[in-house]
Write a structure and sequence with these properties.
34% helix, 89 residues, alpha+beta, 3 helices
Length: 89
């Protein structure tokens, strides 16, 4: 679910919404690897691209919280404590 408020005088938008990624505790490890790889991209590398499509970057505390949760996915890929600097800028 996503909603955006757009102002005629401003070219930016304020995204409002809720996104969820759910993983069952009994999920197969190959699925966990795929999901965790995608989420790491969204939390780290994907943050470089969000302003180009009209969204705001995630605050650092949400990125850190997301990384902690990705580490709970069965079969997850290596999860860094924080996004590498190359992926944050």
């Amino acid at each position: 679910m996503r909603a955006a408020i757009r102002f005629a005088a401003v070219s930016a938008s304020i995204p409002l919404g809720l996104s969820l990624a759910l993983a069952s505790p009994g999920a197969a490890e190959p699925k966990g690897l795929t999901l965790s790889t995608f989420l790491l991209f969204a939390l780290c590398g994907g943050q470089q691209q969000v302003s180009k499509i009209g969204y705001a970057r995630l605050p650092e505390n949400l990125v850190k919280g997301g990384l902690l949760q990705v580490a709970n996915i069965p079969g997850h890929t290596h999860v860094p404590a924080k996004c590498p600097a190359a992926l944050r800028s």
